Amino acid sequence: MSGWVDRSKTTLSANYRGSTSFSTFMIIGPTCFFLGILFASFPYDFPLLWTSAPLPEDFIQHLETHLKFMHQSPPLIGRLLNIIVFTGFLGFFIKLFRPSEANVLFDGASLVLYLIGVGVYITNIVKGLRSVSAGIWDDPEFTTVVKEPRNPGSGEIILGKEDSLKVLAASNTILALVLVGVLVLQAGQWYAERKDREDFAKLEEEKKGASKKKQ
């Protein structure tokens, strides 16, 4: 750890990559971008999770159409999403190259949250979109709430359509909270740097005042 972390580097060092560096914008940009996508899905997620009112008759059909449209978008859209995700990773790797202790604290924790978000996206959201796009619930044999897998030894079960959509909506909420956590940590880094600058300026003023008194 001591060889990886540059303990001589502080938030006032010239080579410190802090909250105002370009790599920070490489992190904040993708994070806000995906939060915008999740916000656009919130009108669909809200009736499923956050209200006890009965769903409109055509709500599930509209939501299914929306999800199919997203998943079946041209391959260019998926490639752009991958590029944006890796842009965030690149920003983290730049900030964590020969990092200071502040980088390890704020950017390291942000990277952990970012990895959790990517994991939720791949394991829950992408899998849910594939299930909706494949139309597995339109199978005439799918008549129960829980469908047993073709391979009983796999341990995988498929929930009913409404329950699966609720899981997808919950995954969107979890991902949004994780991404907000990334922004909070980056904002915390900015605040910590600001306090360091203020404390340093105050210390310099005290030194100047003490030197004038001696004269």
Automatic annotation (TrEMBL):
Keywords of this entry: Membrane, Transmembrane, Transmembrane helix
GO terms under biological process: endoplasmic reticulum to Golgi vesicle-mediated transport
Spans traversing the lipid bilayer: 21-42, 76-97, 104-122, 174-192
Keyword Membrane (UniProt): yes
InterPro entries for the chain: Psh3/Shr3 (IPR013248)
GO cellular component, one term: endoplasmic reticulum membrane
SMART domains assigned to the protein according to its UniProt record, in alphabetical order: SHR3_chaperone (SM00786)
Listed PANTHER family: SECRETORY COMPONENT PROTEIN SHR3
Record protein name field: Secretory component protein SHR3
Lineage start: Eukaryota, Fungi, Dikarya, Ascomycota, Pezizomycotina
